[in-house]
Design brief:
By secondary structure, this protein is of the alpha/beta class. The protein is 42% helix and 19% strand. The two termini are 30 Å apart.
Length: 178
Amino acid sequence: MRPAVKAGQKQYINFGKDQIMERKMKIGWGCDYTGVAMKGELMAYMAEKGYENVDFGGYDASNRKDDYPGFGRRVGEAVASGEVDQGVLICGTGIGISLTANKVPGIRAAVCSEPYSAAMAKRHNNAQIIAFGARVIGVEMAKMILDSFFGSEFEGGRHAGRVERMMQVEADYGKGRA
């Protein structure tokens, strides 16, 4: 599994005496047909900021069969496995694709339509994936949301216990105890 990356696009990994390597945060991207154009603009924006992007699809805005469940799952699995550090999901509202990602064990995906909720999703809930709707917000708002989300860090403290209890619900259902 890849080492954790803190807020910001770079991490420095110390491998011992004089062996320090810089690593960019790796973001997994997924969208349905409604988010293809927005995803392309936002991936370019994040690349300019120094992030590494991994595109899990969709790719064709005219293909209405490119709907969100598959892409939400792919990004959720990539984040859960450590293939990527965090994720961005886009569908018409952001709701369906985030709900799908949240079905992947260990994932906390939050749909946000403004920057404050995006920051709180990371700071208080340690969300690994941000989602929004291409039919709800424009590209400039999406950029502000991304800046807020990726510029925030999990605060821990009292929030750590809440996240643990949240994840215990998932574990309980996985064990058939709920």
